[in-house]
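HOLO CASE FILE
Compound: nicotinamide-adenine-dinucleotide
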Amino acid sequence: KLDKKILVTGGLGYIGSHTCIELINNGFNVSIIDNLVNSDITSLKSIEKITGVKITFYRVDLTDYKKIKNKLENENFDVVIHFAALKSVRESIKFPEKYMDNNIGSLKNILKFMKYKNIKKLLFSSSCTVYGKPDSLPVTEESIFKKPESPYAETKQISEKLIDEFSNKFKQNSISLRYFNPVGAHHSGLIGEKPKGKPENLVPYITETAIGLRKSLSVFGSDYKTKDGTPVRDYIHIVDLANAHVAAVIRLINYKSKKYYEVFNIGTGKGHSVLEVINAFKKVNKVDINYKIVGRRKGDIDIIFSDNTLSRKTLNWKPKKTIEDMVESSWRWQKNINR
Ligand code: NAD
Ligand code: UD1
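Model generated. Tokens follow.
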């Protein structure tokens, strides 16, 4: 049993909540900070119900350093996992300062707090969006950062640079996981992705259309240079993604890497087109979805999928779930919240 204490920021969000469950299942002690800006306190209850463990929760806005310090002064942590951020690409284009202030401000406060408390291990949520439009496929961790497609993407590029500098300066070990497209839900149907308002991402839009909350799914473009003309992405099951965090935390604790800052792609290495996801959903769940092909969405690229060789080898992790598992669990979750 790994009796280590992990501070999880944004732990009530979609990826954070699934990760907390897997951390607890692996014997870690978890405390959560969240300000509920994009989550709901019921996900705390659900994590406790699934794991049978009571969790320490702090409702704190991470842009408020004084409050972080006051609330956590007497706590000690072995590792910080920093999920908390705003993640809407569309909103970030409208309000770029809001994204800089929240995402970069929160990270700077977390780094300052880690230094103050002498916490030497950090795991950070990055995204495949840091690669922009890649020159070659699949993308490896060596691929350079291209021009960011949105202010949101820019916050991830800046965050990674800040963590890299900080880790080398203070000789601490940090890992960024660059997630590809996380989808799906916990098999219990108790937690999942619950967008506030109209979904921006494909799978939540599919499930909300299938259940009747949306009239029709718009497929954004069919003239891309891909197998069927619709864009291709590397969809990864949320529980596989959560387990990648457990693997990365174990690496941070057990292995003193000579490189203070490491990055790993977290994807399946396989690409699926929009139409393939829709068809998998229809076939597995035996429900129809009303959709129509419309014009392209600004900022979308043709195709991206990961080379996950490094994470498989170094983290001793591998994705286990298929696209069928992803669409099946998403649907179970959607039916559960709309009962
Ligand atoms: P989410 O919105 O469900 O979770 C983020 C959580 O952080 C929410 O609970 C929110 O309330 C909290 N939060 C935001 N700002 C905060 C602040 N200032 N103080 C305290 N709490 C704050 O998002 P998610 O999908 O779980 O994403 C988690 C992380 O992974 C984010 O950093 C996101 O950018 C990154 N990421 C997500 C995806 C994706 O598709 N979901 C892909 C790549 C990277
Ligand atoms: C988006 C973000 C990316 C973020 C990622 C997390 C953009 C441009 N990028 O990636 O920064 O890291 O989410 O998962 O928003 N689609 C439709 N109809 C819809 C919704 C989506 O056809 O209603 C298509 C899109 O054109 C895209 C695919 O489905 O080809 C996946 O879209 P989405 O789930 O939004 O993810 P990404 O755009 O890949």
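CASE NOTES: DSSP finds eleven helices and 13 strands in the chain. Residues 10, 12-16, 34-39, 61-63, 83-87, 102, 106, 125, 127, 179, 182 surround nicotinamide-adenine-dinucleotide (ligand 1) (CB under 6 Å).
CLOSED: yes
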